[in-house]
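Q: Protein A?
A:
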Amino acid sequence: MRDVRGWVIVLVLALLIGGAAYFAQPRQDSPQHSSGSDAANGTSAARFFSQAMGHPTTQIEGNFSQPSQDGLMFVFTPTSPYSAQDASDTANWIRRGGVLVYASELGDIELDRALSVTRLNSGVSGQTQHANPVLDGVTTVSGGQAVVPLDGSADQVPILRSSDGFATGYMQRFGQGTIVVLADPLILCNGYLDKTDNGRLLADLLGLVNPGSAVGFDEYHHGLILTDLAPQAWVTTPWGAAILWFLVAIFIGLVLRGRRFGPVIQRPAEVARADAEWAVAVGELLRRSGARALTLGLLANASERAVAARTGLPAQPRERFWNALYARAPELAGELDQAERALYSSAGGDAELLGAAQRLHSIAYPPARERRRQPITEETR
């Protein structure tokens, strides 16, 4: 019962922290001007206004498809780039009679190419933009502090200009349809529709299609982008911060209520292995690998090195060692030579090999008593 009460306290704490983090965060921003966002830079008001004017509205999601042929489509600041096919399909839809309102700060490469939109490299103020008389009842609109002006061609009629005369919006006949390009999408966003004549501009744009025509908002190209996966998204968005605080509270609860699964088992101390074990292991490895020739060579070389160390002769080069050994201790040299010949000629199996190896070992490491009995002569010095 005590454990259950502890988990209830942790859960309540997590909910309180998550709720506080959610309500303490500012309203979610919508830099892509989504029609599903109620933020100041969202465009949900444009969607609701279209519905109020009798236009069936759709948010284009899942797969990219334009509204009906006589409809209107809003494209606000694509954050997922248009493919060449999407841009080509959009251009063909306009040629057949569709109306496109394309509002973006910097534009999309493929869509700009398909619609022949050219943008200048400089920035101008968009807080006061003057309207062309072609827009009924629109004199001035208000937008962002800086916009990238448009470089219109002869068939692209400017409908908005900045205070210093640069085009910030134009209208163009495109086949049987119409394109409206706006350099500043903020003039159609929620927090700007009540400024100057922005609301009237939205009404005029909806008037480009027949009453009851479908109006679509492209949300397909507002898909997931790389910055949505950045670590700062966990603290800059309300839901991300709430989930983060919830995980922190759960972690603290696990630390406070965590218990071992059993008693701590001490690691046993490592025991040093005897030299005999290593020798047996190496011998077994050589036997299993069938390295008979290698084993014979190792035994012979080890015996020669031991005899060289005992007689004070250099073990290398091997030919000089044998010449010096025959000169200094001919009997020892003869015994070592016979033992090595017997070792290399042993073909009777492991027993014969073991006997030859024991004989080599007795020559290389004679018993201490025999060492004391060995006379020291001038030849053995």
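Q: Protein B?
A:
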Amino acid sequence: MVIFADMKLIRAEEHRENRLYAFAWMAVFLFLAARIAVECFVRGESAIDFRGILSSWVQVVPFLILFLLHNYIVAPVFVYKKNPGLYTVLTLLMLALFAVWILVFSEGPEPGMVPPEPSGDWDMDGMPPGDGRWGRPMHPNVLRVLVGILLVGGNLGFKVFFHTEKERQDMVRLEKENLKYQLESLRYQINPHFFMNTLNNIHALVDLDPEKAKESIVELSKLMRHVLYDSDKATIPLSQELDFLENYIALMRIRFPEDVDIVYERPVGCEDAEVPPLTFSSFVENAFKHGMSYERKSFVHIRVSLDGGKVIFRCRNSRSPQHDGSGKGVGIENSRQRFGLLYGDNYTLHIDESPEEYELLLVIPATPSKRV
């Protein structure tokens, strides 16, 4: 699908360039026709000189042929194949043939152009009086050859411009695709890691308390529904992500003793805020994984708030002596990479830790990211 999309974009760029050339040449032919029609009207003629119009168009045909040869055959050698040597040889040969054509087969002055009558101020050779320091006027055929050279140069400039613009758009598109692939890779790493730990929690309950294990499976099904239907989206409403946390915390309450201090606070009226799916899951998971202990008083305090267009997530938990790696798991590192791809420098992920406590602060925009 990506290949077809790229081909479609390339064709669109080529069509845009070709339309510009078509309009330019149509304007040239219309200008020549309009000029002769106006001259006929000024001279008081009863009919438009269509033969003159046709003759002027015929004189433009060599320039059109020169343009077509350069644009579709010669210029691609330089622009697309990056072969300046071959391009130079072909261009010189093409211009030489064009010059021969103009000098040998040209009909002379354009139709409707009447050479001025000699006056007392000019001699019969078209020279001004005096010592001839003004020189002879340029021959029309030489001027036509110079116009052909300028036409080739202008066409090359437009060709390079359009090609450079297409390459720039391709680079932007590739960067966005790369960001998407990286985010998908990180998401696929976070989900299995999260559920692996959740299943381990349920496994621990099967022998200790089968009834609680059944309740845990029900809560897990709610979590899986969120992951299956929402995790492939770029962003989801903050309320849905907070519901997911609430289900996960309910699962943890089933597993751990009642004397564990678990606090979860969430804002009301957060319908307009959006966050990437599973934004907070790895942090809450680590809080329970590394902070719970059956031997000492444990706590997990989670607070989510909105302030000034930002989503503020705080998670503070006790630190179990047997766990000294809080914040160093795959979930934390993947989250750092994910937020970097989504928000650039427009986010904060700060960790404070001591032997007894571990606290994480995350601040992200409350509106969807435009980077991907």
